[in-house]
Amino acid sequence: MHNMSPVGPSMAGKRSRIRSWWLGLLGATVAVGSTVALAATAPQAQAAGQCAVTNANYQMCWTDGADSNTLLFQKAAERIAVAPAGSTIHVAMYQWHNLTNDPLFDALRQAVIDGKPVKVLLGNKSGVNDPAKDGAGAKIQGAVGAGNVFWCTAAQQNEACLQRSETSPGLMHAKFVLIKYPTGRTEVITFSSNITSGQYGRAQNSLAVFGDVALYDAYYGFWDRLVQKKWLGWTTDGDLGRDGSFGGNKAYFFPRAAGDPMASIIDGKHCAGDGEQIRILSSDDDLRPTMRTAIQKAKTRGCFIRITVTSETIKSAILNAPGNNLTGSNINVNGEVHSKVVYIRARTSASSALSEVVFTGSHNLGQYALRYADDVMVRTQEPTVTAAYRTYVMSFQS
What we know:
By secondary structure, the protein is an alpha+beta fold. It has helices at residues 11-22, 71-82, 103-113, 136-144, 197-200, 213-228, 261-267, 289-300, 312-319, 367-372, 383-394; strands at 30-32, 36-38, 44-45, 49-55, 58-64, 88-93, 118-122, 149-151, 171-172, 175-180, 186-191, 203-210, 241-243, 250-254, 277-281, 304-309, 331-333, 341-346, 355-361, 373-380. A 9-stranded mixed β-sheet has the order 3-4-5-12-11-10-6-7-8, with helices on both faces. Strands 9, 13, 14, 15, 16, 17, 18, 19 and 20 form a 9-stranded mixed β-sheet that branches. Strands 1-2 form a two-stranded antiparallel ribbon.
């Protein structure tokens, strides 16, 4: 799910396009809660990456894969640093084994010193988090306390915490940071990136949501279930979709025993050839059959379709899938992309107005991710965020 694909010769131009569109985004100094301000009079540059403070409640950051870049985790580290003593910090991270260039690790270590309790759930990939291997797990334990670091299995194997099948162990693929102040203020930061040297060199994004208490509660509920390895009453697929406090925000948790919420959402969109669009960045995975079918039907209804995948093999699989009506012009290949984004601009009925919605996070769009991987996607309909993601996704596409 994380194999790097070759990058085509046009990538320098792509990077330039990605950087340049941010120059048109005007930032503003905004108050966040009563105690913290995110200051940005313009998007913040960091090597080949940017952040946009879209309003008081959201911050989107991205890197374009031009070089090794820790911007996403630097920004998360800043949020941890400004949180007051007594704040709690919970982390879920699939792969974490690059502590020599790791602002998040440094921030967590300092947080414990500053009186901010930290708990970390680690996934595994070939034992990279095993203290007996490269030592990353042991170092994280040393920084935050051995009793505050968790794996899905006692042997620290690459398995899911919440398994749906006895035939597949799955994996814990989530990547997020949760911060809660003593005052009750909450922050949810979700990433597409793992903390590895290879991932720092991919095109990634993160979305931070400030003050959405229900969204925090949903993420924390998922984190707690992962650590306990129990579903704890989340028995149906409906339980795995949790609304935020801010209108339009929702978290979708995986794995699912049945159904596909992403495909269902696409199926529910009305297209009439009037500016409706479905744009997807898909990382290192084929589109699952339910997604393919939903996209095929959306094209038939008149939706404009663009999909970015990471290899010619994946592109061919989509074009050769049963019932396919997509053409090569609907799909492009960019081996640097590791962001997972679904952007939709469509109507909910023939008479409704056009609206935008974005889904992002760490959930891949393949079949394995749907049925076997512990993971999450977050939805937002906040106009400033959807506008930023629209332009971000279009920077990879025609």
